[in-house]
Every structure is written in C-alpha cells, then in structure tokens.
Amino acid sequence: MSDATPTPFGTFDTAGPAASRADVLPEPVAAALAAWPTGAGPVDAVLLVDSDPDKADTAVFCETYDVRPEVSANCVVVAAKRGQEVTLAACVVLATTKLDVNRAVRKRLGARKASFAPMDDAVAATRMEYGGITPVGLPAEWPLLIDARVTATPHVLVGSGARRGKLILPGAALAALPNAEVITDLAV
Fold first, then answer.
1. Total domain count for the chain?
2. N or C: which end of the chain has fewer CB within 10 A?
3. At 110, which CATH number?
4. First to last CA, the chain
5. Is residue 156 a contact partner of residue 72, using CB atoms and an 8 Å limit?
C-alpha cells in the first residue's frame, strides 16, 4: 500500500487502492473488488486506509483519524421475519443518523418484525468481522438498502470487512453494488 495516496478526508499513515490489497481483505470483499461493477466507477477509486483494529468503532475512529461523522457510514445487518421465514439484509446509513428498523426496513422487506441480526449470525453469513462489516462483498442474495444521504455523499467511509482498515469510496458507487436499493429516509 502506498503511503503517498491522498484521501479525500482523514489522517492516515497508509492508503491505497483496495483492489491491490486482496492479501489483507476478507475473501468476499477481495472477490467483490475483483468483480467491481462497471456502473460503480473505477475500482481504483475505492481506497483502503490502514487503522488500528481497537479503534474501529465509529466515534473512536472518527476522533482518532480526523474523519467527520457525516462522511462515515455504518453497514448494519438486519433480520426480517415473516412467519417462519427469516431474511437477512444489509442497511447502510450515515453515522449521524439512526436506521429506521421498525418502520422503513420492516416495510421495505415486507416483514412483520425486523431487528438487528445477532452478531454471530451476521459474522457467519457475511464472512466478515463484527465491527468491520461492509456493503462490498455481501452475500449475493441479500437485499442491500442504502439511505439516499449515503449515496449523495461525495466520498464515504465504510468498513473493509475487517476491524483493521476501512474503505473510502464515492457514495454513489454503493448504488451500483448487487441488489442495492437507494431509499429516501431509511434513517432518521
């Protein structure tokens, strides 16, 4: 990873194109970058920044690396239930907002009940680390719900699939990911 790659925000010791760092990314994330969708823009616009895994939680990360919370996004795994059927989905919202699980998510997924997926289920299903789950490289069948404010952000910080490191990419690129649906007011 090149120390010289500039980032649109933050203060990082190392940053560079994420696609060239498959050796440090979880397999599903590396595979998604290798098969980057054409409509998402150039894959080299997706940067991997190195960070301390003990500082992965959003508030601590933002303070430590001089990142404004309004450019940081969280990827949350939800479990939507209708009868005995459970659908896992991912939702991406800015760190300055709160995911509207009980109204927006439940309604969009046609569920009677929606809640945050248990940590062990989210980790096993995504093959990513808790605290680093990213919309890049999610299971192919999952719905990916993205708050419109995320895609309107010129560059956004998301997890890398691991607690060490984060991805910075154009917010609009997330809308081109498989099964992505941009929703106004997914968050409050």
1. 1
2. C
3. 3.90.960.10
4. 37
5. yes
Report d(CA 115, CA 90) in Å as an integer.
Answer: 11
Instruction: Flag whether 8 is in a domain.
Output: no
Count of all residues that appear for the chain in the document: 188
Q: For 19, list phi and psi in degrees, rounded to 5.
A: -60, -25
What the block records as the tokens of 57 is: 């939680």
The structure tokens listed for 134 are 């990213």
102 located within any domain: yes
Query: CB 146: neighbour CB atoms within 10 A?
Result: 24
Q: Is 12 within 8 Å of 5 (Cβ atoms)?
A: no
- Residue pair 171/156 in contact (Cβ under 8 Å)? The answer is yes
pLDDT tens per residue across span 108-152: 999 999 999 999 999 999 999 999 999 999 999 999 999 999 999
- Write down the pLDDT at residue 92: 98
Alpha-carbon distance values, 47 to 4, 44, 87, 94, 170 (Å): 12, 7, 31, 18, 10
pTM flag (> 0.85): yes
Which amino acid is present at 19?
A
Distance CA 134, CA 52 (A): 17
Beta-bridge partners for 151: none
